Amino acid sequence: MPNKTLKLAWLGIGILLIVTLLIPETNGPFKIKQFGELPVLEGGRIKPLDTIARNALLMIQGKQTIRTQPKSLTSIEWFLLLSTHPEKADALEIFVVEHPQLFGSLGDKYQKQKYRVSFNFLKEHHNKIITQSSRALEMEPGQRTPYQKQIIALNNRLMLYFKLKNTFKPENNPQFTDAIQSFQQNLPNALDAIKTHSQLETLSQEKKKLISELNMHFKDFQMLSQTSNFYPIPPFGSKTTSDWKSVGDSLLQSLDITIPLNPAVMDYSKMLSAYANNDSNGFNSALASHRNLIQSQFPKLFYKSKTEAFFNHASLFYRGILLYGLALIILIISWIKAPRFLGKLAYGVVSIGFLSHTIGLLSRMLLHGRPPVTNLYSSAIFVGWVAVFLGLLIEKRLRNSIALFATTIIGILTLIIAHHLAMSGDTLEMMQAVLDSNFWLSTHVVTITMGYAAVAMAGMFASIYILMGFLTKRLKGEREKTLRAMVYGSIGLALTLSFIGTVLGGIWADQSWGRFWGWDPKENGSILIVLWMAICLHARFAGLVRTQGFMVAAVFGNIVFVWSWFGVNMLGIGLHSYGFMDKSFIWLVGFAVSQLIIMLIGTMPLSIWTSFRDEGK
Amino acid sequence: MFNSIKSSLKKVIKAMASLKITVLLLISLFLLVIMVTLAQVDLGIYYATQRYLNSFAIYWAPNKGLLVPIFPGGYTIGTLLFFNLVAALATRIWLKPKSYGLWLIHMGLLSLLIGSGITSFKAAESQLAFSEGESKYYSESTREIELVVIDTSGETKDAVISFPEALLKEGSELSHNTLPFTITLNSYSTNSTLENKATPGIQNGYGQHISSRPLPIFTQDDARNIATAIVSIDSDNYKDKLLLTTGLEATQVIQVYDTPYRIELRHKRYYVLYSIQLIDFQRKLYPGTEIPHSFSSKIKLNNKKTGEERDVLIYMNHPFRYEGKTYFQASYGENETLSVLQVVENPGWLFPYISSTLISLGLLIHFLQMLIARLKKDQNHA
Asked: Do B110 and B190 share a domain, yes or no?
């Protein structure tokens, strides 16, 4: 039966998808992927170097790869280039500049809204950036102009870049491995020289040289300890996360000759100098030595770090976007040709996309040890996940491809939003003290976010109702009835979830700062959703609106939802505005306008709707 | 006669229970919440809430002295919703098997409305700031001011007479039957700035060195206003003029009929009959970051009346509830040796818990009933 073959085909596609994930990348002679798996401490948690490199590149240039000739650079390759050949990395045009007035006076090229420049370029204009951004920093965050926000952002990118470059070794000391070795060899003698001869004149030339060299090393180490972006040196013999150290600190510590130099310092140093000298054997053997040490001392952390690097590499949410997109195309074709077969095919493709989406979500939860929603980024991922999940359930029962179509669109949009939100840094960031409660995160936050998904579904179903009715002849009979019921059901669900979620939030607030309700903008946003959903239902019961008006009201729900989700964060006040973001304002307005247009179409008299035109006759 | 009253009363209640009124009120509330959210950008949360929600109407002031109500405030909408809901419960949403769920949901809403009413009229929030080692038996309001006269002549106790902020207006005269003098406010400003310059006409106290200039109120939620007043003290044998301000921590004492009185303008105090001592404040950061991982205050509670003396740890999401007041970790300062606790007294705190239980139960029953009805219908079809 074709049914069976179809199922087999799904299995095949699914397996193919997963196998492509497992095929190791061929990176040439250097084991770069293994290098990216090495755990380091940054932002309060242990994460792989791969995550550091990806997030840094996202923050600096908004993308995870750099297009260069003859071959693109991945994040971790760029990081290695930055640490070993800083002069080459400095010439890459990777820094995003997002304001036409920042360097507009230099020529047409710099008057675009968004363009990229190199570190060398910014170095030339360093004075301007420093003075302008320190002036901007004196302003209250809410008062800053877009120009000032951009100059601060640019300065932050520069700082991040500079720190990354000087984490493993000082950029101006290419022979750092030799320096460490000579430091270790000469340290006892140099210390001895300092101890035994308090008067400089009486020292021999040779000892003077020893002391001055030690002084130079000391300066290098101190600078390294100050510029370090992360802490790569594990504390062998200690399980405390805060004992991880920077390269500079480890070296400074070893000035006390009773403390041996941490072997990881030498391993990293060897890796980098081998990479600089194009010596793949040296690189791989130092890497293997460090990995063995980590494996034996921190097997759990190492496993977690490797897993995170693997999921970075798998980019499951990106695959989700692609598969959902593919399914949409199939669905659209299915309305013209072979609806049964193509409809089933689309269902399968969405299912595989959903599988990828789910694994991504679960892996984040496991790595973080948290419920699915902890910040704006993960709320986007979760809204899409809930919508697609419900869409698949409804589709299974109704088989009209409408639920699937609508929720797949929500899935794509929310994953794209998440992709853009990821540019602000680590998406597995540590939780602010006040949010640090898995119980409330998994009840209040999850329920509210599920409510968002239900509102979005109601809005999307209603949009389809309006557009299908107005533009096509398909909105008739059973289909019209089902679609109407779908909107009703979603609104009921949305009201329930947002109400319970909001009340739970109130109880959390009562527990943690004694105020059930504080009229903070985020709270206002969530009560707006509850009120609007209640208005939709009661207006329908009261007979104030009929089906048509109900649909228009449901589409308006989308605007309320997006306002509650993002708009309030742009106001930048209140206890909830940890997830501040900017610039997306235009997108928000654009979305609102699109919804208003659909609402406008929805208010047209039914007599000109294509589906109902002939009914009077 | 009686019957006609009864029937017209029934008509009124029926009209009040109208779903159309419900929708109108919900839409008004929806608009009000949008307005208050937008107003918060300029006014801050506290003042926006006061103007839009803790008020009966929102006024438009085209000219000074002219106030035109243009939209119902939170109190009005809340009260109307309350009556609408009561009427609906009395006439439409009966307690019958078919609508147990709906009934519970709306009872829960009723309890939520009552609770928020109690909270907005009865709840008081204040703060308790103390350094390690320091012991306190009162907390202070962050916004409300009081003018106090303290008779320090008692051997073991001070007598404190407090005049609340509502009475503090330019020109008002304050008196109390235990005080041998009256206090007249020559000027009062909720916010002001202090200058190192003598206030003309003042011969006593720190007003000889300091003067004030009124400022517009700071509305931002974290900004503190400095209230200042110039007062005249009047009695048969004593006349004086003083500058009072919340911006200085100094006391001024006057002697009237040989009794020393301290006169102060200060943040309103809430006294308790026990004392709390800060033993240790701790702030922990995530390793290698500036992100706080936890804040905590270890305090010693000392209640002479009950003989209690014990240590309590207050930290995020773990407040300390005692004798109707709840203490929350709110802030800290001075190199982590000073802790600020939020002190909340809210007699309506239990209502949201009751209503959320009722509503959740109601929703559950309602959806189960719908599901069962749906399944039955499907079965009949088959």
From this structure: no
Residues B106 and B222 in one domain: no
Residue in A507, A514, A574 nearest the CB of B344: A514
Structure tokens at A114: 């968004």
Of all residues in chain B, the one with the smallest CA distance to A534 is B26
On whether any CB of chain B is under 8 Å from the CB of A496, the answer is: yes
Q: Is residue A335 domain-resident?
A: no
B45 CB neighbours in chain A (<8 A) are 518-520, 573-574
The ipTM of this complex is: 0.87
Q: Which residues of A touch B36 (CB under 8 A)?
A: 519, 524
SS3 for A534-568, per residue? HHHHHHHHCCCCCHHHHHHHHHHHHHHHHHHHHHH
Domain that holds residue A517: 469-617
Question: Who's near A435: CB < 8 A, 6+ residues apart?
Answer: A374, A441, A578
Task: Looking at the complex, report in whole angstroms how far the Cα of residue B290 sits from the nearest Cα belonging to chain A.
Answer: 9
- With both helix axes pointing from N to C terminus, report the angle between A446-471 and A521-541 in degrees, rounded to the nearest 10: 50
B65 shares its domain with B173: no
Same domain, B170 and B245: yes
Query: Which pLDDT belongs to residue A571?
Result: 66
Name the strand (E) or helix (H) holding A482: helix A477-513
Provide the shortest C-alpha distance from residue A246 to chain B (in Å): 10
Q: Which residues of B touch A544 (CB under 8 A)?
A: 20, 23
Residue of B140, B97, B353 lying closest to B265 (CA atoms): B140
pLDDT of residue A574: 42
Q: Is A545's Cβ below 8 Å from some Cβ in B?
A: no
Contact B352 A534 (CB under 8 A): no
- Residue A169, classed as helix, strand or coil, is coil
B342 with A514: Cβ contact below 8 A: yes
Q: What is the mean pLDDT of residues B30-46?
A: 88
| B161 shares its domain with B220 | yes
Suggest the residue from B317, B326, B331 to mutate for an interface test with chain A (most A CBs closer than 10 A).
Answer: B317
**Cβ contacts of A574 on chain B, cutoff 8 Å:** 40, 45
The domain in which residue B26 lies consists of: 2-123+350-381
Give me A279's structure tokens: 């010596």
- Nearest residue of B to residue A532 by CA position? B30
Distances (CA, A) of A297 to A231, A253, A284, B47: 17, 21, 20, 57
Report which of residues B92 and A337 the model is more confident about. A337
Chosen domain end from A275, A300, A325: A300
Of the three residues A300, A316, A338, the one that is the final residue of a domain is A300
d(CA B108, CA B293): 37
Give φ, ψ of B343 to 5 degrees: -115, 120
In whole angstroms, what is the distance from residue B377 CA to residue A276 CA? 75
Residue A143 forms contact with B (CB below 8 Å): no
B-chain residues near A45 (CB < 8 A): 286
Residue A311 reports pLDDT greater than 50: yes
DSSP string, A587-606: HHHHHHHHHHHHHHHHTS-G
Encoded amino acid at B45, one letter:
I
pLDDT in tens, A183-241: 888 888 888 777 776 666 667 777 788 888 888 888 889 888 888 889 999 998 777 87
Task: Report pLDDT for A455.
Answer: 96
- Residues A327-335: contacts with CB under 8 Å, at least 24 apart: A327/A353, A327/A404, A327/A408, A328/A405, A328/A408, A328/A409, A328/A412, A331/A401, A331/A404, A331/A405, A331/A408, A334/A401, A335/A401
Question: Do A512 and B27 count as a contact with CB atoms less than 8 A apart?
Answer: no
Domain identity same for B114 and B148: no
CB contact under 8 A, A231 and B330: no
